[in-house]
Amino acid sequence: MQLIIVAGPPSSGKTALIKQIIRHFHEKRRVAFLKIDVVKAFEDEELAAEFGILTAKVYSGDLCPDHAGVMVLGDTIAWASGNGADLLLVESAGLCLRCAPYLNQGLGIVVLSSISGIHAPLKMGAMVSLADVAVVTKIDLVSQAEREVFLQKIREAHPHVRVFETNALQGTALQRLFDLIAASETIEPAGLLLRGVPPLGTCTICVGKKEIGWQHHFGVVRRLEGPIAEHLFRGE
Questions:
Q1: Which of 25, 181, 194, 207 has the smallest set of CB atoms within 10 Å of its CB?
Q2: Which sign does the torsion angle of CA 207, 210, 211, 212 carry?
Q3: Do 168 and 135 have their domain in common?
Q4: What's the CA gap between 19 and 72, in Å, rounded?
Q5: Which domain holds residue 205?
Q6: 67 and 10 in one domain?
Q7: Is 63 within 8 Å of 38 (Cβ atoms)?
Q8: For the chain, which ranges sit under pLDDT 50?
C-alpha cells in the first residue's frame, strides 16, 4: 500500500487537493482516506458520497491533532490494508506548527495558500521543512511577483522540497504530482516511524494546568525577558 500524508494550515486547500488526487486515482487504485480534526469534520462523508471510497475520521478533542494522528495511524494502516486499499490518504488538521505528521515512509505533502502572506512558509517549522512536496494553491489570486517571492520563502525553509503550483479547485498543473504519487514506494508497516523529533511535551500546561505565568509551571518554561534560546527546546 502507498501512503500519502497531507498537512498544511486550515483553509490552505488540503481537501481540494486530496479531491483532485482521488479523482485521478480512484479508478486505478483502491483508495482509503482518513481525516484528522479537532472538533468536527465532514470531508470523509463528502468524499465517500462523491467517489465511493473507504473513509474514516478521528477527532482529537483536547489532544494535539498531530499527536492524535500518531496514536491512530497504526490502526488506520491496518484498517486500510485489511480492506484491500492500495493508496491511503491522510489529511491532518493542520493546527500545530511545531509538529510534523510525516513518516519515514510514504510521501509527505504540505499545502500552502499563496494568499497566506509571503513569509508564511518561514513560520511553519517542520510542517514545511520535513515535507517531500510543497503544493502552492490559489495561485490565480496573487501577482506573479508575489508568487515568486512566496516560492523563494518555501525554498529558504526547505531548499530541497519539490514545489508544485496549482489552482486546486480546477486541478491545474498537477500531472507531475500524480506521476510522483504513482511512483512512490509502498510502505512496510513494521518499520514506520515519525520523520522528525516531536516537540517536547512535558510542561504542566500540557497536562492541564490553567494558571497564567511561568511561576506556576515547571518543565519547558520561559520568562518574557531573556533570550528565547535559553528556555526554548528546538528538537533535533
A1: 207
A2: positive
A3: yes
A4: 22
A5: 200-236
A6: yes
A7: no
A8: 228-229, 231-236
The residue type found at 177 is: L
pTM: 0.87
Query: Is the domain of 214 the same as that of 169?
Result: no
Place of cell 523563494: 152
What pLDDT does residue 1 have?
97
Indicate whether 215 and 160 sit together in one domain: no
Q: Express each pLDDT in 2-32 by its tens digit.
A: 999 999 998 899 999 999 999 999 999 999 9
DSSP strands (E only) in the chain: 2-7, 31-37, 54-59, 87-91, 107-113, 133-137, 162-165
- Find all residues with CB under 8 Å of 27, minimum gap 6, and list them: none
117 shares its domain with 150: yes
What confidence score (pLDDT) does residue 233 get? 43
Q: Which three cell numbers stand for residue 48?
A: 465517500
Cell numbers representing residue 18 in the block: 486530496
Question: Residue 202: its pLDDT value, please?
Answer: 63
Residue-wise pLDDT for 122-144, tens only, equals 998 889 999 999 999 999 899 99
Number of independent structural domains in the chain: 2
* Together in a domain, 99 and 213: no
Residue listed under C-alpha cell 494502516: 77
Beta bridge partners of 37: 59
